[in-house]
Amino acid sequence: MLAPSSQEEKGSDFSVVAVSYRGFWTSRGRPSERGIILDAQAALQWVLGKYDLSNTKIVIWGQSIGAGVATTALANLLETETDGRKLTAISGLVLETPFVDLRSMLVALYPQRFLPYRYLCPFLRSTWDSNGALQRVAAAKPTGLQKILILQAGSDEIVPDGQAELLRHVCTEGGLDAELKVIEGALHTEIMAKHEGRKMIAEFLKNISKERCT
Q1: Which residues contact 41 (CB under 8 A, 6 or more apart)?
Q2: Cα dist from 25 to 36, 66, 193, whole Å
Q3: Minimal CA–CA distance to 198: which of 149, 132, 158?
Q4: Long-range contacts of residues 84-88, Cβ cutoff 8 Å, at least 24 apart
Q5: Class of residue 146 by CB neighbours under 10 A (exposed 0-12, middle 13-18, buried 19+)
Q6: 6, 12 contact by CB (below 8 A)
Q7: CA-to-CA distance for 68 and 102, rounded, in angstroms?
Q8: Least-confidence region, from 88-97, 166-175, 204-213
Q9: What pLDDT was estimated at residue 143?
Q10: What is the 3-state secondary structure (H, E, C) of the chain?
Q11: Can you tell me the distance from the alpha carbon of 4 to that of 13, in angstroms, rounded to the nearest whole number?
């Protein structure tokens, strides 16, 4: 989650807010999908109260499962927040090596019908449904959201090929401005380790920060 403050005369200052979810790092508690989503929403609300929204543009960034956290938190915010000034501050969304949801991952990883794994979907405790969350985002018609950047690792050893394209299609169908970039040769956690990946993200943030705050 990034909160870039747009200042045309002096350039742009960028602040990074990294969330320590319950059960991870120094945070107490037991991790669960519901709990982590609540943590992400609390972090978003903190950011919205911390910065001067008349001069700030917020970009939400999620990687892998974090893409599900980011999309769900954004959808929940758009559906519950009544202060339009806060909603227009959400200017961008970065989805790094995302997948559609855990159900689709099971089927994609185990396409053989004779294997039992693909039939375990009803027993999943978490879904991380980025597909459904993006549909909710599109339905909310966010006025401040300028662009969505979807980054696919060209040699991803975890997320099957095609998952990122499905999410881009959902965005396009919903009227969201989404761009898909494939970082060739990158493994699942190597987008930021590749020069091309860093360049794509830097350009994305730079372009958003150039837009005049409303």
Answers
A1: 73, 76, 77
A2: 13, 15, 22
A3: 149
A4: 84/143, 85/53, 86/48, 86/53, 87/142, 87/143, 87/144, 88/53, 88/143, 88/144, 88/214
A5: middle
A6: yes
A7: 10
A8: 204-213
A9: 87
A10: CEEEEEECCCEEEEEECCCCCCCCCCCCCCCCHHHHHHHHHHHHHHHHHHCCHHHECEEEEEECHHHHHHHHHHHHHHHHCCCHHHHHHEEEEEEECCCCCHHHHHHHHCCCCCCCHHHCHHHCCCCCCHHHHHHHHHHHCCCCCCEEEEEEECCCCCCCCCHHHHHHHHHHHCCCCEEEEEECCCCCCCHHHCHHHHHHHHHHHHHHHHCCCC
A11: 6
pLDDT tens digits, one per residue of 128-164: 999 999 999 999 999 889 899 999 999 999 999 999 9
How is the chain split into domains, by residue range?
Answer: 2-210
pTM of the model: 0.89
CATH topology of domain 2-210: Rossmann fold (3.40.50)
189-202 pLDDT, tens digit each: 999 999 999 999 99
